[in-house]
Design brief:
single chain, about 260 residues, mainly beta, Porin, 12-stranded antiparallel beta barrel
Length: about 260
């Protein structure tokens, strides 16, 4: 209960931290009806798939992609997939899962005409071929973002009733930011962004590196966007965990390079 209270307090604190078109253009946009549904997709190639500070591919490359459908009301649903490689895929372990498939749905919108937006939903992480080792799990999330013009800030609360590998209840509190860097170009865009995450396992006896039953993860990076082509992201990742545990499960300092495209 102390850990849960601590996580709630952090979410509240992070949330506490937390534009114009020419008239002719506005009239033209207003004349065009908003479609009921929009379909989007994304593909990416990265040298290392990292999730909350842990490599999901044992430090190797990953090919990723997703598809989304959104209704003008704010409802949305989608799927996303990536190859994975866990340590227990080697003998004598029996897990043979080599892919992660995520299914999610939610609702997003803004608070009136304010700078604040929200996103609530659920996501199912599936690992076909895990041979019953309990990798599949649910997460439920609520996120709050603020567009300050010169930067965006975000936080949220993520809860899983039975996290990856049957480790029990897990809470994640993310705080993220993104700052665009003006280049005066219609072709190139540059931004710097990062995230700090607090992760707590509420079940007694769940420990990382024999000491911690919670940990921090963080990342910071630079994103280059080339209009109508692709984005390139360079990022540094690390966690508050260390030692032999991270040597095995790859949760120490890591660098990633990712090229992606949305369509």
């Amino acid at each position: 209960m102390m850990k849960f209270t601590k996580a709630i307090a952090l979410a509240a604190l992070a949330a506490g931290f937390i534009a114009t078109s020419a008239p002719a253009m506005a009239e033209e946009a207003a004349a065009e009806p908003t479609p009921d549904f929009t379909f989007t997709g994304n593909i990416a190639l990265t040298n290392n798939y990292i999730f909350r500070g842990f490599s999901q591919t044992n430090g190797d490359f990953a090919v990723q992609g997703g598809l989304d459908i959104a209704h003008k009301s704010g409802l949305y649903a989608g799927t996303w997939a990536s190859n994975v490689e866990f340590k227990d895929q080697s003998a004598p372990f029996t897990n043979s899962s080599s892919i992660e498939v995520d299914l999610y749905a939610g609702y997003k919108g803004t608070f009136g005409n304010s700078i604040f937006s929200y996103d609530v939903g659920a996501i199912w992480y599936a690992y076909p071929g895990d041979n019953g080792v309990g990798y599949d799990y649910w997460e439920f999330y609520a996120k709050l973002n603020a567009d300050l013009g010169f930067m965006t800030l975000g936080t949220g609360f993520v809860y899983s009733p039975d996290f990856f590998a049957n480790t029990g209840d897990m809470i994640n509190i993310p705080v993220n930011f993104s700052i665009p860097i003006p280049l005066g170009s219609d072709t190139w865009a540059l931004s710097i962004g990062g995230q700090l995450g607090y992760n707590v396992y509420t079940e007694n006896g769940i420990t990382w590196d024999g000491i911690h039953d919670d940990y921090w993860n963080w990342n910071i990076g630079l994103t280059v966007a080339i209009t109508d082509w692709f984005n390139v992201d360079f990022r540094y990742h690390d966690t508050s965990l260390n030692g032999a545990f991270c040597d095995v499960f790859r949760c120490d300092a890591q660098f990633t390079g990712t090229i992606s495209r949305a369509f």
